[in-house]
Amino acid sequence: MASTFALLITPVADFDIRDTYADTFSVIDASAPALSVGELSTQRGDGIFESIGVSGGHPQEVMPHLERLAHSARLCDLPLPNIEQWREAIAIAADACGEGEWVIKLILSRGIEHGPTPTAWVTAAPAGDFAAARRDGISVVTLDRGFDSGAPGRAPWLLLGAKTLSYAVNMAAIREAKRRGADDAVFVSSDGILLEAPTASLVIRVGDRFVTPRPGAGILHGTTQISVFSFLQAKGYEAVYETLPASALPRVDAAWLVSSVRLAAPIHTVDGTTLPMDSALTAELNAYLLSPRD
Ligand code: PLP
Protein backbone atom coordinates (compact mmCIF):
# COMPACT_ATOMS: atom_id res chain seq x y z
CA MET A 1 0.00 0.00 0.00
CA ALA A 2 1.61 3.29 -1.08
CA SER A 3 2.04 5.80 1.72
CA THR A 4 0.02 8.96 1.48
CA PHE A 5 1.93 10.82 4.18
CA ALA A 6 5.59 10.83 5.17
CA LEU A 7 7.60 12.67 7.79
CA LEU A 8 11.39 12.63 8.08
CA ILE A 9 12.74 12.93 11.60
CA THR A 10 16.13 14.22 12.67
CA PRO A 11 16.64 11.95 15.67
CA VAL A 12 17.42 13.77 18.91
CA ALA A 13 19.21 11.55 21.40
CA ASP A 14 18.68 13.49 24.64
CA PHE A 15 15.32 13.06 26.21
CA ASP A 16 13.72 16.17 27.68
CA ILE A 17 10.00 16.07 28.27
CA ARG A 18 9.79 19.92 28.16
CA ASP A 19 11.12 20.11 24.64
CA THR A 20 9.01 20.28 21.57
CA TYR A 21 10.53 18.60 18.58
CA ALA A 22 8.48 20.17 15.81
CA ASP A 23 11.57 21.73 14.22
CA THR A 24 13.16 18.30 13.92
CA PHE A 25 10.42 17.06 11.55
CA SER A 26 9.99 17.72 7.87
CA VAL A 27 6.89 16.62 6.02
CA ILE A 28 7.96 15.22 2.66
CA ASP A 29 6.21 14.15 -0.52
CA ALA A 30 5.30 10.50 0.13
CA SER A 31 5.32 9.71 -3.59
CA ALA A 32 8.79 11.17 -4.25
CA PRO A 33 12.22 9.56 -3.62
CA ALA A 34 13.52 10.49 -0.17
CA LEU A 35 16.34 8.17 0.92
CA SER A 36 20.02 8.26 0.01
CA VAL A 37 21.36 5.30 -1.99
CA GLY A 38 23.84 4.86 0.89
CA GLU A 39 21.02 4.00 3.31
CA LEU A 40 21.93 0.93 5.37
CA SER A 41 18.24 0.10 5.79
CA THR A 42 17.91 -0.47 2.07
CA GLN A 43 21.41 -1.96 1.55
CA ARG A 44 21.35 -4.37 4.49
CA GLY A 45 17.95 -4.22 6.16
CA ASP A 46 19.89 -2.72 9.08
CA GLY A 47 17.20 -0.97 11.06
CA ILE A 48 14.03 -1.52 13.03
CA PHE A 49 10.37 -0.68 12.57
CA GLU A 50 6.88 -0.67 14.04
CA SER A 51 3.43 -0.74 12.41
CA ILE A 52 0.71 0.99 14.41
CA GLY A 53 -2.96 0.41 13.62
CA VAL A 54 -5.05 3.58 13.35
CA SER A 55 -8.81 3.37 13.76
CA GLY A 56 -11.00 6.44 13.27
CA GLY A 57 -7.92 8.68 13.53
CA HIS A 58 -6.76 7.10 16.81
CA PRO A 59 -3.31 5.45 16.78
CA GLN A 60 -3.60 2.34 18.96
CA GLU A 61 -1.21 1.44 21.77
CA VAL A 62 1.41 4.08 20.97
CA MET A 63 3.45 3.52 24.14
CA PRO A 64 3.68 -0.31 23.81
CA HIS A 65 4.86 0.21 20.20
CA LEU A 66 7.46 2.79 21.29
CA GLU A 67 8.61 0.51 24.11
CA ARG A 68 9.06 -2.31 21.61
CA LEU A 69 10.92 0.05 19.24
CA ALA A 70 13.28 0.84 22.16
CA HIS A 71 13.65 -2.89 22.92
CA SER A 72 14.54 -3.59 19.26
CA ALA A 73 16.99 -0.65 19.31
CA ARG A 74 18.74 -2.14 22.36
CA LEU A 75 19.04 -5.56 20.71
CA CYS A 76 20.45 -3.96 17.54
CA ASP A 77 22.83 -1.49 19.28
CA LEU A 78 20.94 1.42 17.71
CA PRO A 79 20.56 4.74 19.55
CA LEU A 80 17.56 4.59 21.89
CA PRO A 81 14.57 6.40 20.37
CA ASN A 82 13.59 9.67 22.03
CA ILE A 83 10.07 8.69 23.10
CA GLU A 84 8.61 12.22 23.25
CA GLN A 85 9.95 13.08 19.80
CA TRP A 86 8.39 9.93 18.31
CA ARG A 87 5.09 10.56 20.11
CA GLU A 88 4.91 14.01 18.52
CA ALA A 89 5.71 12.56 15.10
CA ILE A 90 3.00 9.89 15.50
CA ALA A 91 0.45 12.55 16.50
CA ILE A 92 1.25 14.53 13.33
CA ALA A 93 0.94 11.38 11.19
CA ALA A 94 -2.35 10.43 12.89
CA ASP A 95 -3.75 13.87 11.98
CA ALA A 96 -3.03 13.02 8.34
CA CYS A 97 -5.05 9.76 8.55
CA GLY A 98 -8.58 9.78 7.18
CA GLU A 99 -11.66 7.83 8.21
CA GLY A 100 -11.55 4.06 8.63
CA GLU A 101 -8.45 1.99 9.24
CA TRP A 102 -4.94 3.21 8.55
CA VAL A 103 -1.41 2.14 9.37
CA ILE A 104 1.39 4.34 10.69
CA LYS A 105 4.88 2.92 10.23
CA LEU A 106 7.89 4.01 12.27
CA ILE A 107 11.31 3.29 10.83
CA LEU A 108 14.66 3.79 12.53
CA SER A 109 17.62 2.84 10.36
CA ARG A 110 21.34 2.82 11.14
CA GLY A 111 21.56 5.61 8.60
CA ILE A 112 23.87 6.29 5.71
CA GLU A 113 27.07 4.23 5.49
CA HIS A 114 29.80 6.09 7.43
CA GLY A 115 27.20 8.76 8.22
CA PRO A 116 26.96 10.41 11.62
CA THR A 117 23.31 9.76 12.53
CA PRO A 118 20.54 7.23 12.13
CA THR A 119 17.77 7.93 9.64
CA ALA A 120 14.23 7.98 10.95
CA TRP A 121 10.88 8.43 9.31
CA VAL A 122 7.17 7.92 9.80
CA THR A 123 4.57 7.11 7.13
CA ALA A 124 0.79 6.86 7.11
CA ALA A 125 -1.27 4.88 4.59
CA PRO A 126 -4.75 3.34 4.38
CA ALA A 127 -4.75 -0.19 5.83
CA GLY A 128 -5.41 -3.24 3.68
CA ASP A 129 -8.83 -4.88 3.81
CA PHE A 130 -8.88 -7.65 6.44
CA ALA A 131 -12.68 -7.92 6.74
CA ALA A 132 -12.85 -11.38 5.13
CA ALA A 133 -9.96 -12.78 7.23
CA ARG A 134 -11.58 -11.46 10.43
CA ARG A 135 -15.00 -12.85 9.51
CA ASP A 136 -14.32 -16.08 7.58
CA GLY A 137 -10.98 -17.05 9.09
CA ILE A 138 -7.70 -18.22 7.57
CA SER A 139 -5.83 -21.45 6.94
CA VAL A 140 -2.26 -21.87 8.16
CA VAL A 141 0.56 -24.36 7.78
CA THR A 142 3.28 -24.86 10.37
CA LEU A 143 6.79 -24.17 9.07
CA ASP A 144 10.14 -24.98 10.67
CA ARG A 145 11.93 -21.74 11.52
CA GLY A 146 15.23 -23.60 11.41
CA PHE A 147 16.36 -22.63 14.95
CA ASP A 148 15.94 -24.65 18.13
CA SER A 149 14.38 -23.02 21.19
CA GLY A 150 17.84 -22.41 22.75
CA ALA A 151 18.98 -20.27 19.77
CA PRO A 152 17.75 -16.85 21.06
CA GLY A 153 19.85 -17.20 24.26
CA ARG A 154 22.83 -18.90 22.62
CA ALA A 155 23.07 -16.60 19.58
CA PRO A 156 21.67 -13.12 20.38
CA TRP A 157 23.16 -11.78 17.12
CA LEU A 158 20.36 -13.57 15.28
CA LEU A 159 18.21 -10.71 16.68
CA LEU A 160 15.30 -13.08 17.28
CA GLY A 161 12.78 -11.00 19.19
CA ALA A 162 13.76 -7.67 17.55
CA LYS A 163 11.45 -6.15 14.95
CA THR A 164 14.14 -5.55 12.37
CA LEU A 165 13.74 -4.43 8.78
CA SER A 166 15.15 -7.81 7.66
CA TYR A 167 11.74 -9.33 6.91
CA ALA A 168 12.72 -11.13 3.69
CA VAL A 169 12.67 -14.48 5.55
CA ASN A 170 9.20 -13.75 7.00
CA MET A 171 7.89 -12.83 3.53
CA ALA A 172 9.44 -16.03 2.08
CA ALA A 173 7.61 -18.07 4.73
CA ILE A 174 4.27 -16.52 3.72
CA ARG A 175 5.01 -17.32 0.05
CA GLU A 176 5.83 -20.92 1.04
CA ALA A 177 2.53 -21.12 2.98
CA LYS A 178 0.68 -19.95 -0.14
CA ARG A 179 2.55 -22.48 -2.29
CA ARG A 180 1.22 -25.14 0.08
CA GLY A 181 -2.31 -23.79 -0.42
CA ALA A 182 -2.66 -21.93 2.92
CA ASP A 183 -3.16 -18.26 3.73
CA ASP A 184 -0.38 -17.89 6.29
CA ALA A 185 2.27 -19.72 8.30
CA VAL A 186 2.98 -20.46 11.94
CA PHE A 187 6.66 -20.87 12.76
CA VAL A 188 7.77 -23.83 14.85
CA SER A 189 11.25 -24.16 16.39
CA SER A 190 13.36 -27.05 15.09
CA ASP A 191 12.69 -28.82 18.42
CA GLY A 192 8.93 -28.58 17.88
CA ILE A 193 7.84 -25.53 19.93
CA LEU A 194 5.10 -23.19 18.63
CA LEU A 195 6.40 -19.66 18.02
CA GLU A 196 4.57 -16.98 16.00
CA ALA A 197 3.42 -16.19 12.48
CA PRO A 198 5.69 -14.22 10.11
CA THR A 199 3.72 -11.01 10.84
CA ALA A 200 1.46 -11.91 13.78
CA SER A 201 1.23 -13.50 17.22
CA LEU A 202 -0.53 -16.81 17.83
CA VAL A 203 -3.25 -16.99 20.50
CA ILE A 204 -4.97 -20.30 21.21
CA ARG A 205 -7.92 -21.33 23.35
CA VAL A 206 -8.21 -24.58 25.29
CA GLY A 207 -11.45 -24.60 27.27
CA ASP A 208 -11.62 -21.28 29.10
CA ARG A 209 -7.82 -20.80 29.01
CA PHE A 210 -6.15 -18.61 26.43
CA VAL A 211 -2.47 -19.19 25.76
CA THR A 212 0.27 -17.56 23.70
CA PRO A 213 3.91 -18.64 23.34
CA ARG A 214 6.36 -16.90 25.69
CA PRO A 215 8.04 -13.82 24.16
CA GLY A 216 11.40 -15.05 25.61
CA ALA A 217 11.36 -17.81 22.97
CA GLY A 218 12.85 -15.43 20.38
CA ILE A 219 9.53 -14.07 19.16
CA LEU A 220 8.07 -10.57 19.24
CA HIS A 221 5.97 -9.59 22.20
CA GLY A 222 2.85 -8.57 20.27
CA THR A 223 1.08 -5.36 21.27
CA THR A 224 -2.21 -6.79 19.95
CA GLN A 225 -1.78 -10.00 21.95
CA ILE A 226 -1.23 -7.90 25.10
CA SER A 227 -4.48 -6.01 24.33
CA VAL A 228 -6.32 -9.27 23.63
CA PHE A 229 -5.14 -10.69 26.97
CA SER A 230 -6.35 -7.64 28.93
CA PHE A 231 -9.74 -7.87 27.15
CA LEU A 232 -10.04 -11.59 27.96
CA GLN A 233 -8.86 -11.19 31.55
CA ALA A 234 -11.45 -8.41 32.08
CA LYS A 235 -14.08 -10.94 30.95
CA GLY A 236 -12.83 -13.36 33.63
CA TYR A 237 -10.83 -15.72 31.40
CA GLU A 238 -7.37 -17.00 32.24
CA ALA A 239 -4.81 -15.75 29.70
CA VAL A 240 -1.22 -16.94 30.10
CA TYR A 241 2.19 -17.35 28.40
CA GLU A 242 3.30 -20.95 27.96
CA THR A 243 5.66 -23.13 26.01
CA LEU A 244 3.48 -25.17 23.67
CA PRO A 245 4.42 -28.12 21.47
CA ALA A 246 3.44 -27.89 17.79
CA SER A 247 1.43 -31.09 18.25
CA ALA A 248 -1.02 -29.10 20.45
CA LEU A 249 -2.19 -26.78 17.66
CA PRO A 250 -4.52 -29.11 15.71
CA ARG A 251 -6.25 -30.08 18.99
CA VAL A 252 -7.11 -26.60 20.37
CA ASP A 253 -10.67 -25.27 20.80
CA ALA A 254 -9.88 -22.13 18.79
CA ALA A 255 -6.86 -20.19 17.54
CA TRP A 256 -6.20 -16.72 16.11
CA LEU A 257 -3.41 -14.81 14.45
CA VAL A 258 -3.40 -11.32 15.94
CA SER A 259 -1.51 -8.22 14.85
CA SER A 260 -1.85 -4.45 14.80
CA VAL A 261 -3.40 -4.02 11.36
CA ARG A 262 -5.15 -7.36 10.64
CA LEU A 263 -6.41 -7.47 14.30
CA ALA A 264 -7.83 -10.95 15.15
CA ALA A 265 -8.07 -13.49 12.31
CA PRO A 266 -9.47 -16.85 13.46
CA ILE A 267 -7.67 -19.94 12.14
CA HIS A 268 -10.08 -22.42 10.54
CA THR A 269 -7.51 -24.96 9.31
CA VAL A 270 -4.03 -25.94 10.46
CA ASP A 271 -1.95 -28.30 8.28
CA GLY A 272 -5.19 -29.53 6.69
CA THR A 273 -6.99 -30.20 10.01
CA THR A 274 -10.15 -28.16 10.63
CA LEU A 275 -10.27 -26.10 13.83
CA PRO A 276 -13.45 -24.86 15.53
CA MET A 277 -14.05 -21.10 15.08
CA ASP A 278 -15.76 -18.95 17.70
CA SER A 279 -17.33 -16.29 15.46
CA ALA A 280 -19.10 -14.45 18.30
CA LEU A 281 -15.96 -14.08 20.41
CA THR A 282 -13.92 -13.12 17.32
CA ALA A 283 -16.41 -10.36 16.47
CA GLU A 284 -16.26 -9.10 20.07
CA LEU A 285 -12.47 -9.16 20.00
CA ASN A 286 -12.31 -7.21 16.76
CA ALA A 287 -14.84 -4.65 17.97
CA TYR A 288 -12.66 -4.14 21.03
CA LEU A 289 -9.46 -3.95 18.97
CA LEU A 290 -11.05 -1.30 16.72
CA SER A 291 -12.15 0.84 19.68
CA PRO A 292 -9.66 3.33 21.15
CA ARG A 293 -7.67 1.19 23.59
CA ASP A 294 -5.21 3.63 25.15
N1 PLP B 1 5.25 -11.32 15.39
C1 PLP B 1 5.79 -10.81 14.27
C2 PLP B 1 6.95 -11.52 13.65
C3 PLP B 1 5.29 -9.62 13.70
O1 PLP B 1 5.86 -9.11 12.59
C4 PLP B 1 4.19 -8.98 14.30
C5 PLP B 1 3.63 -7.74 13.73
O2 PLP B 1 3.93 -7.32 12.67
C6 PLP B 1 3.64 -9.55 15.45
C7 PLP B 1 4.17 -10.72 15.98
C8 PLP B 1 2.45 -8.91 16.12
O3 PLP B 1 2.81 -7.70 16.74
P1 PLP B 1 1.75 -6.53 16.93
O4 PLP B 1 0.56 -7.14 17.57
O5 PLP B 1 2.44 -5.58 17.85
O6 PLP B 1 1.45 -5.97 15.59
TrEMBL record:
UniProtKB keywords: Lyase
Source organism superkingdom: Bacteria
GO molecular function terms attached to this record: lyase activity
Keyword Lyase annotated: yes
Extent of the signal sequence: none
Keyword tRNA-binding in record: no
Annotated Gene3D superfamilies: 3.30.470.10, D-amino Acid Aminotransferase, subunit A, domain 2
GO biological process terms held by the UniProt record: carboxylic acid biosynthetic process
One Gene Ontology cellular component annotation held by this UniProt entry: cytosol
InterPro entries, per the entry: Aminotrans_IV, Aminotransferase-like, BCAT-like_C, BCAT-like_N, Class-IV_PLP-Dep_Aminotrnsfr
Protein name as annotated: Aminodeoxychorismate lyase
Species assigned in the record: Microbacterium mitrae
Source species taxonomy: Bacteria, Bacillati, Actinomycetota, Actinomycetes, Micrococcales
